[in-house]
Specification:
The structure holds two protein chains of two kinds. Chain A is mainly α. Chain A is built from three helices and no strands. Chain A has a single domain, classed as F1F0 ATP synthase subunit C (F1FO ATP Synthase, Up-down Bundle). In chain A, 88% of the residues lie in helices and 0% in strands. In chain A, α1 packs antiparallel against α3 and α2 runs antiparallel to α3. By secondary structure, chain B is mainly alpha-helical. Chain B is globular and about 70 Å long. Classes of the chains: A mainly alpha, B mainly alpha.
C-alpha cells in the first residue's frame, strides 16, 4: 500500500517541471507579440521561429509527463 | 476500464517466424504500410494531371513539395538540394503517421520509441557520414568551439561531443513523447465520460467529450508541428555537417 501511495506522490512530483515550461511558453509568446507589435511586417519570418520554439519547449513538458505516466502505469 | 496505455500495444496480425526471428506483420507494420500508401497516392494523383492552372489536389501536393524545398533552401542552402528526396520522405512518413494515428481506432507508430529512434539514428549516422565525406578529418574541428580561450578547451570539447551524441536521443524522444502523451491524455479524458455521465444522468459526460474534441484539434496541430520540428532539426544538423561552423 505504501508503494502505491509513493507512486502517486512521485507522479505528482514529476510534473513540477511543468512550471518551468509554463514560464518558457509564456516568454516565447510574449516576445512574439512584442516583436509583432513593434514591426508587424516581420510576422511571416518570426512566426515559424516562434512555433519551433514552442514545440521545443513543449517537448520538455512532455518529458516530465512521460516520467509521470511511466510511474503511474509503467 | 482498459488502461490508457493499452492503445500502444503491438500485436501480430500475420504471424511469420523465419529461423527463430519474429518477422510478423504487426498492427504497427500495417499502419506504416497504410501511411506510405496514402502518401504515395496523395502525391502520385496530385502530380498526374500536371495542369497549368492546378486543381485543389495538385495545389496540396505542390504545397507540400514547396514547403520542404523552401525549408531546405532557407536552412541548408543550395548544397542541401541533393538531400531533398530523403528529407521529403522523412517529413511525409512522420506527418502521415501522426495524422493517420489520430483516426479513432488507428495505431500511431510514431508513438513508439523503437520507430522514432530508428528514424533519428538514420539521420544521425547519415549526417555524420556526409560531414566526414565532405570534410574528411577536418570534420572533427566541429567539436572545437571557436573564440574560446585554450584554457577552457578541456571543458568545452567534451561538452560539444556530448551534445552532438545526444542529438538522436532528444530527436527521437521529442517525437515519441509528444505522440504518446497526446494520445494518452485523450484516452484519459475519454475514460471520464462514462463514470461522470452515470453520476449526473448523462449531462456531466458532455464536458469530457467537449474536451476531447478540443484536444483532437490541438493534436492535429501537434502532429504537424512535430513532423515539422523533426525535419527542421534534420536540416539544421545537415547544415552543421555541410558547413561546419
Amino acid at each position: 500500500m505504501e508503494l502505491e501511495a509513493a507512486k502517486m506522490i512521485g507522479a505528482g512530483l514529476a510534473v513540477i517541471g511543468l512550471s518551468g515550461v509554463g514560464v518558457g511558453i509564456g516568454n516565447i509568446f510574449s516576445s512574439l507579440i512584442g516583436s509583432i507589435a513593434r514591426n508587424p511586417a516581420t510576422r511571416p519570418q518570426i512566426f515559424p521561429m516562434a512555433m519551433l520554439g514552442f514545440a521545443l519547449v513543449e517537448a520538455v513538458a512532455l518529458y516530465a509527463l512521460l516520467i509521470s505516466f511511466l510511474i503511474l502505469f509503467g | 476500464m482498459a488502461s490508457p496505455l493499452q492503445q500502444f500495444e503491438i500485436h501480430p496480425i500475420v504471424p511469420i517466424h523465419i529461423g527463430g526471428i519474429d518477422l510478423s506483420i504487426t498492427n504497427s507494420a500495417l499502419w506504416m504500410g497504410i501511411s506510405v500508401a496514402t502518401a504515395s497516392v496523395f502525391l502520385a494523383f496530385g502530380a498526374r494531371r500536371r495542369a497549368l492552372v492546378p486543381g485543389r489536389w495538385q495545389v496540396m501536393a505542390e504545397m507540400s513539395y514547396e514547403f520542404i524545398a523552401n525549408m531546405l533552401r532557407d536552412n541548408v542552402g543550395d548544397a542541401g538540394r541533393r538531400f531533398f528526396p530523403y528529407i521529403f520522405t522523412l517529413f511525409m512518413f512522420i506527418l502521415f503517421g501522426n495524422l493517420l494515428g489520430l483516426v479513432p481506432g488507428a495505431f500511431t507508430y510514431t508513438s513508439h520509441i523503437a520507430v522514432t529512434l530508428a528514424l533519428a539514428m538514420t539521420v544521425f549516422v547519415a549526417v555524420t557520414i556526409v560531414g566526414i565525406v565532405k570534410h574528411g578529418l577536418h570534420f572533427f574541428t566541429f567539436f572545437v568551439p571557436s573564440g574560446v580561450p585554450a584554457l577552457m578547451m578541456p571543458l568545452m570539447i567534451p561538452i560539444e561531443i556530448i551534445s552532438y551524441l545526444s542529438r538522436p536521443v532528444s530527436l527521437s524522444i521529442r517525437l515519441f513523447a509528444n505522440m504518446m502523451a497526446g494520445h494518452t491524455m485523450m484516452k484519459v479524458f475519454a475514460g471520464f465520460v462514462v463514470p461522470l455521465g452515470a453520476a449526473t444522468f448523462g449531462i456531466g459526460g458532455l464536458a469530457p467529450i467537449a474536451m476531447d474534441v478540443a484536444l483532437t484539434g490541438f493534436e492535429l496541430l501537434v502532429a504537424f508541428l512535430q513532423a515539422y520540428v523533426f525535419t527542421v532539426l534534420t536540416c539544421l544538423y545537415l547544415n552543421d555537417a555541410l558547413h561546419l561552423h
